[in-house]
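Researcher: Here's a chain I'd like modeled. Treat it as a single chain, no partners, no ligands.
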Amino acid sequence: MNRRNFIKTTGLVTAVSAISPSLSAETITKNVFDGFIPKEIINAIRSRIKLITPEERLQRIERARQLMTENKIDAILMEGGTSLSYFTKARWGRSERLFCMVLPAKGDAFFISPKFEESRAKEQTENAQVHCWEENESPYELIKKVLKERGLLSATLGVEETTRHFVTEGIRKAIPALKIKSADAVTAGCRSVKTAHEIELMQIANDMSAEVYKAAVKQLKVGMSENEFGEIISNLFGEFGVGGGALVLFGEASAHPHGLVKTNYLKENDVVLMDGGCEVEGYESDITRMWMFGKASDKALKNLELVRKAQDQGLKAAKPGVEAWTVDAAARKVITDNGYGPGYKYFTHRLGHGIGMDGHEWHYLVGGNKHILKTGNMFSNEPGIYIPGEFGIRLEDEMLITENGARLLLPQQDNFEKMF
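Model: Modeled as a single isolated chain. Structure tokens:
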């Protein structure tokens, strides 16, 4: 399973993810799965879920406008996707027909929508201005018309990073006087610094993940396929009423960080790698844990200890004001100094990625990245050692940058018998 798509694992889990937090865990479990996780645990965790409020979204927009002013951007444009959902309640899939929001530094936001989607657009945009184009009209000419009315035809327009090339080019051709630049300073500037509410939603997703992993390993059996175990994990997330799942790798497959196409079946004394999580009100968890199905070799025990020490050093190095590359370097040094070097030879990937509403987002703990860490940044901390033909070990936790350093959202793994 592609770890970046684990939340969309099955139609059943996708349907479960839409369940309202107001429903009781007892109702969810009764209607969806026979439970393996105690209902009192499900109830206790789910009771903490609180929805993002309209007031919070207004605060996000005001922060965006502040960053626009600081970065000399007059307006930003974003298509349907995560950033749009961050600033508004709109959930809009992308197609060849342009739907987007333009948020000026001054004045009200407006939306551009296909005319036949007008009712759905208005339903999702909280009484904002919605300008519609017919099928035989150009959405870019419509953007030009509205910008002209706002006195922004020669303004600087920031474009959200995932905006498709044909959209940017359509705007550029229709409005040649417009100065187009990246909106990363605004979108990443807002989304990469988490509020207390965002952190709590991510903590809830992490707590669910921990309970799911603990329940899942009790279902391991000789001959089970990786896909079968992955389905068990997805179903366990369903007991919480959320969409989730995991990349599962058995034995030698764990030496490849994201696995191979070949399906593997569980054998005695295989290592089991689980890498995944769930989504709670739009916020994701991403946790990797190791389990030993049988007796661990001395080499596996040693490598688990080394990876844990590397994670500790990454945690110690992470604090406000340091450059992102230094955190990767601190963790990598533990592994290379103990014979698994140089560089990326055995620890084959960066130490971590930003995480929030997207499983991978700004910024990255990787060599060469001079991004300055800030209080409220959330990263994965995931060192690993991968030995082709034998096994791989990876430990991954979400790491919050605080005023006083960094902390992980879950207890770390100490050994193969206790994951949390």
